[in-house]
Every structure is written in C-alpha cells, then in structure tokens.
C-alpha cells in the first residue's frame, strides 16, 4: 500500500541521459519559433503519464526490459532530434527565439520503483494528484536562455505495473507531434533495436508557416506587455505546490451517451451551421456540468477555452508531416443562467459551434488581440474552463507490447 508521502514510496534506481542515435544529425541545428510556437514560450510544461500492466520484478525489469527502453528511445530521438535540444534566444535578434540542437545534447531519464498502490492509481475514483505527479519528471533549469525541452521518468510498480511519464516544454511542439513521437518510441521498442518510425516522418521545414501579418511580433509584444519584467526570459511559469487535497478522477462518455447528446442537440438547436461532432457535444456537456457543480451566479458570463488544429485551415494548408505547434485558441462564452437551464447543453453546443465556424475568417483574424483576450478571462468570480488534448490522438494505441495503457 502507498505510504503517506509519495516521495517516501519512491526509490530512484538510475538517473542517466539519452542522446539521439546515431550521433550524426543531418538536419539544421536550429529551428526558429513561429507565431504558433511563441505563445507557449512562458507556459508551464506539459506532463503526460501512461500506466500499463507489467507483472515483473524490479530485477527482471532492469536486466531484461530497461536496456531496450533506453536504446529504442535513443533511436527514436534521432528522428525527433529537436526534442533533445533546448529553447534559447536567437543570436540574430533579442526578440527571436529558436529550438537549438548540437551534437551531444540529450534528454534526462529517471528510472525508479515505487510501492504506491498501482490499482489505486489506475482507478477511475478520486485519487491524490500528488501521487500521480510523482510519476512525471521535472525539467531542469539550465539558465534563462538555455531551457531543456524534454525529460522522462520510468517508474516500476513491482509485479503490478509500469509508468512512462514525460514532461515537455510546449514551445517545442503540440500534442499531435507528441503522440507521433511516443507511438514511434513504442513501435521501435517492440521492434528490438530496429527503427520503426510510425509514418509519416516529421518535417522541420518552418517555411510552411507563413506570417504575412507579422503575428509573431504582435503575440510576443502582447505577452511581454503583461509581464512585470520588461526583459523577458525563457522560464515557463513556476510550478506551484498543489494543495494536498487536490485529486484526479476519471469520467467516461460512452458511444450511446454521446449519440444521445448529438440527437438531443440536433432536435432542439435552432442553429444548423455547425458540425455537431463528438468533441463539440462532449465539451458542451462538460461545460454545463462544471458550471452547475461550482454554483456560479446566474447573471455573469462563463468562458470555455479549447485549442484548434490549424494544419488544414491555413492557406496553403500545412503538411501533416510538419513538426511544431500549429494550434490556436478558441474562446466560447455563454451566460451562466442560460447554461443552468434544462436545455443548457443546447446553448453550450451552439456557443462552441459558433466559435468553430468563425475560424473560416482565417488565422490572422482569429489570433488578433490574443493576449488581451486571454488576460481578460482571469476573473475570480467565474474562472475560464479550458480543455486540452484530443480524441484524435488515439493515445490508447500507444503500445510498448504490454497491452493498452490503463
């Protein structure tokens, strides 16, 4: 059973660094940040955690499985080499930033075992967030202009399970790229030291992101204007200690429930201009449930933020192979009182659908005034709700040979 402290239950077996293999990288060493990337430069790192069944002892794991995990990670990093580098200020301009890789760069890998209750961690019930957070690594700060992008932690729960956790600076890439990376690592691991890259191969051609309206400067300038320090530094927001009472819980919406929500919206919505997708109705349902649960005053506005993939929406469209951020935020709003009504999900769905339809105006129009809009939503009376990730990532297909993640 888990001890009272997550740290007390963790034993570090090894700490090492993994470099891309083979050592020679033929791609350009530096990748300039685009206007899609720059919005994430001060953001907190993203943490992903996969938990798998793994009925093996610590000795068997370290002697039989760990060497292949290391070598397959090294082989995979060769194709995703920017992740082994750093984000830094460009030598050409104080306002330009880049991802920079040089031979010898590497990512941190922590190997540990834990006596936390594995079945408790993978359950859907409320479980302590601190226990889950102990299974993902922290990015080490190397300096204001020298920030690593990626770190890994592999945690064994002897005879029960294994955790693959990693932390990434969002400035490097988006969730689509991360899923491509982790699936490629899993595939290479299963192929036993033979590169098994999940197609398509990543492309690092930054010229496909066209910026005729100079969104880069607008977004960077807007971001800096809201910082107390006029001299920006490449340090993501400090990680605050989470309250000991904070918990994670898992909720599911099955196919029957989703189809029922779609049928309800289609029958009662007066707007027929948007696609009533699984994503839209799921977010709308979530939005109304949380507004009801938190007891907000009925006469104020509530906001829902979600990310949209611009790859197919740009002119010309960005290739599927593009490696880098290609996300933009969407802001939906609705009156709390309207969402509290019996058919509040209809209003929530229409609000989200309206914003998605507005994307047809183009990326320059949609990202104009981005930062003033973001900061205007920081209101204590009704904090904006945001959602991350996408069902299209198909993360439950990340299989190292141990079955589906739990």
Automatic annotation (TrEMBL):
Coiled coil: none
Family annotation (Gene3D superfamilies): Chloramphenicol acetyltransferase-like domain
Keywords from the UniProt entry: Acyltransferase, Transferase
Gene Ontology MF terms in the entry: acyltransferase activity, transferring groups other than amino-acyl groups
Listed InterPro entries: CAT-like_dom_sf, Plant_metabolite_acyltrans
Pfam family, one: Transferase
Cited PANTHER family: PTHR31625
Protein name as annotated: Coumaroyl-CoA:anthocyanidin 3-O-glucoside-6''-O-coumaroyltransferase 2
Organism: Iris pallida (Sweet iris)
